[in-house]
Design a protein that fits this description.
By secondary structure, the chain is α/β, with parallel strands linked by helices. The protein has helices at 29-41, 61-70, 76-79, 105-119, 138-151, 164-177, 200-206, 225-230, 240-246, 249-265, 269-278, 293-303, 309-318, 327-330; strands at 3-5, 12-14, 17-19, 46-48, 81-86, 124-129, 154-160, 182-188, 210-214, 287-288. The strands form two sheets. Strands 9-8-7-6-5-4-3-10 form an eight-stranded parallel β-sheet. The protein starts with a strand and ends with a helix.
Length: 331
């Protein structure tokens, strides 16, 4: 496994992030534990989750599965850089009681204690804001975070799904207060969705945030979706974002060109999708959310996959980026 620092911090994390969103809804507890053991054995030390994972009536279930895994001992917790998130409505019916969601100081305090209990740990290494809160002053958010850091409940704060200007505003406010500020941004970023290159990633680099791409295969679209479709398909590759995209003839032709290119080079689409992100400036590591051990093994192989300049240029031709701002939208 290869490692890098998370943004401007001294924290060393693996260049592959284990995403746990499928643990509970798609993968049972025992199999989830097996995948986490295998990830740790492969050198993956960066695990990502969120308080709402488990979804529906089972929100929080994913954190509980991590908690029972940590409770097995064997230095599991000590070896893992643990990241979770706060913002979501934790009510099963979606009708949250006031102050039981978003980023008020009260909910942050309540949510972190609930996550610590489910995770069976005394601290969270990276506590991430799952979404911007348009109703809570940034000063209040940092006041709450600073208290949690002083209490030893969290070590670092990160963002997710923030616009570039929001990253700037949040870290400028932190600097004014003498707070450490955001150290990471978790954003939608992959070959098929490159808008983050316009402002989000440049802002993250300017303020020393590590970029953690989620949905690196765009909902399975970049994982050989057409090939799997022809072989009978899977629920992952023929539903959701992948199915919606493949229904568009132009987009389907683009994905076909991608798969044809990689067939020519004898490469697996999913591994290339992850490896491409590892070549991108500012990227700490993509989040791989395996449902099976085989999917984890494929993701681990991507870390050592070297993409030639010729292949990178061909990928850019199929999936051209938007270019930097303001040029991308000004002329």
């Amino acid at each position: 496994m290869k490692y890098t620092h998370l943004g401007r911090t001294g924290l060393e994390v693996s260049r592959l992030v284990l995403g746990t969103m499928n643990f509970g809804p798609q993968t049972n507890e025992s199999d989830s534990h097996t995948i986490m053991d295998a990830a740790l054995d492969a050198g993956v030390n960066f695990f990502d989750t969120a308080n709402v994972y488990g979804w529906g009536e089972n929100k929080g279930r994913t954190e509980e599965i991590l908690g029972t895994w940590f409770a097995q001992g064997g230095e599991r917790r000590d070896k893992v850089v643990l990241a979770t998130k706060v913002y979501g409505n934790m009510a099963a019916d979606g009708d949250a009681w006031p102050n039981h969601h978003k980023l008020s100081a009260l909910n942050i305090r309540r949510a972190v204690d609930a996550s610590l209990k489910r995770l069976q740990t005394d601290h969270i290494d990276l506590y991430q804001f799952h979404h911007i809160d348009r109703d809570t002053p940034v000063d209040e958010i940092w006041q709450a975070v600073d208290v949690l850091i002083q209490q030893g409940k969290i070590l670092y704060a990160g963002s997710s799904n923030f616009a570039g200007w929001k990253i700037a505003q949040t870290n400028e406010t932190a600097q004014r207060r003498g707070s450490y500020g955001l150290v990471s941004e978790q954003c939608l970023y992959n070959l098929a969705e490159r808008r983050a290159e316009m402002e989000v990633i440049p802002a993250a680099q300017e303020y020393g945030l590590g970029v953690i791409p989620w949905s690196p295969l765009h909902g399975g679209l970049l994982g050989g979706a057409i090939r799997k479709e022809g072989a009978g398909g899977s629920s992952r590759s023929t539903s959701g974002r992948a199915a919606d995209t493949l229904a568009d003839p132009a987009a389907r032709a683009q994905i076909q060109a991608y798969e044809d290119l990689l067939d020519k080079h004898g490469l697996e689409p999913g591994e290339v999708g992850l490896a491409w992100l590892l070549t991108r400036p500012g990227v700490t590591g993509p989040i791989s959310g395996p449902r099976t051990l085989e999917q984890l093994e494929s993701a681990v192989r991507a870390v050592d996959l070297e993409l030639s300049d010729e292949l990178l240029s061909a990928l850019d031709e199929i999936f051209p980026g938007p270019g930097p701002s303001p040029e991308a939208f000004a002329w």
